[in-house]
Amino acid sequence: MSANFRKKKCIVTSCSRSTDDGVKLHRCGENHQEIGKALGKFNITKNTYICSLHFEPSCFSRKGGLNPDALPTLLLNADAPSVKHCDVPFCPNTDADVVFFKGRPAFAAIGKEIGVDLTKGWICGEHFEEDYVDDKGRLKANALPTLGFVTEDTDGALNQVTVHVVSSNQDSTVDLMLSDDVVADIVDDCKDLEVRAENNKLRLELQKTQEKLESLRKTVKLLQDDLVTKKRKIDNLEAELRLANKAARHFEVRIVNE
């Protein structure tokens, strides 16, 4: 999609308001570098937008435009300090719109090509191919941002930029510069593997315990069956003993009578 059709949003991190919110958006214009310093941002250009809520009334001309030296001082950290803006120039996305990833040293060459530092800050997921994201929604170690880059020419017009990733044919091994978030992902994966290994170990132990319990159940069942059989034999022997005692008493009575 052409950059001219992007939804315009305020660049202030805690704001991200658009014209849909009933505010007026102003281009930073020739004062963009000073405005960037005031906001602590380095991706501010002439065509970056900032809304009127961040300026004192004295910053506006009679016609409602920004004075050439106007600087934002109001509501710069209000209400939503955790809102993140994509640091790619002219990208209006916030973390409320799409997933965000931290910049990496490996992005330095691409950032230089489009004139912005991509080794730090935040980059939204729209600048990455889908296969650069793993099943857990994390950016893969070899991921590079190649989509949705726009530059501004001398006339202020916006043009899409095609980023070419050049790989060496001499060595098939990718030389990766591991940033903190990549290392954190690797550590998380190692922990996951450890948990899985521990779970597998526990699962095997549980299986062995269940097999032992089943064997004990069978043994107990055999003993119970044997006990029932022996009890029947005892009952039969007791019955025979009672009959024998009865016969013996009857025989004794006959002897006495004779």
Automatic annotation (TrEMBL):
Coiled coil region boundaries: 199-254
Domain of life: Eukaryota
SMART domains: DM3 (SM00692), THAP (SM00980)
Residues annotated as signal peptide: none
Ranges for domain THAP-type: 8-81, 25-80, 84-154, 101-153
InterPro entries named in the record: THAP1/10, THAP_Znf
SUPFAM superfamilies on file: Glucocorticoid receptor-like (DNA-binding domain)
Keyword entries, A-Z: Coiled coil, DNA-binding, Metal-binding, Zinc, Zinc-finger
Keyword Zinc-finger belongs to the record: yes
GO molecular function: sequence-specific DNA binding; zinc ion binding
Record protein name field: Uncharacterized protein LOC100900066
